[in-house]
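for the record, two folds in this file. i put them one after another cuz i was lazy. first one right below, seq on top, structure tokens after. the second one comes after a little note so u can tell where it starts
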Amino acid sequence: MSKSSFKRTKSRLSPAELRRELADADIALMEAVVAGCALVAYSDGWVSPEETLRMRRLILRFEPAKALGIAEVLTLFEDITLRFAQDHDAGERDAFELVSRLIERPRECDLLIDTCCGIADADGGLDAEERQAILKLCALLRVDPRPHGL
């Protein structure tokens, strides 16, 4: 299904607002955000080397990642993507485990969904697999997907 089949996702916050919100992120939030973005990236079952390179470039340019510390975010992203590459199901379980640590933190849950929507939208929209991954995250975290255009 083409990306044009779905409307663009909507982060409720601008990139600068996301960066400010993530400026005081603790390790649990940083891990959850990176895990959520990896879930979106691997939503179709695999990520090509080109997609991995593109995700690294997106992280380098994505304002909220700067607030979390680019080097730390890239190291964590590489660790999580390695888990997916070795065993997709185990990588997915590990990523959902990291994300689930935020369940009792509604503000951070919304922030995670905003960030994942921003990453998914970075290439012009989202495909069916990305949308489904974000909806799973919303369900896990009890976040209403409607404000995000899902």
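(here's the note) second protein begins now
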Amino acid sequence: MKMTNGEYAKYVKEKTPRSKTGADMLKAFLVGGLICCIGQAILDGYTSLGMETENASIATSVTLVFLGALLTGLGVYDNIAKFAGAGTLVPITGFANSVVSPALEFKSEGYVTGTGAKMFIIAGPVIVYGTTASVLYGIIYCLVR
């Protein structure tokens, strides 16, 4: 079948699926924001129980990591991530998910060579490059200051 450039462009336009970028960004924003609101509610709960702000912040981080790991273990976090995409990656719960998911996936290979070796396969590079960047920024800050 011979087509002109115009006919081919029209054919491609008809067959190309419509972009869902707007809807994806909205879902990511709403779910990421909801996770952050839950974190704020937990922080407010800890401070209302009489914790100092610094200790309440630490307890909130630990609680969010625990909830992220628990929901990953129960298979719920993956469903949330399928719906919200990047909205679940940014908050601290995304870090917990990135550690727990490979650990669960490779647990059949044993605790050392499976779970232990693969646990930081996703989160490891984030930790390494995040730490390296913070050291470099600290050095630059000390030199510029």
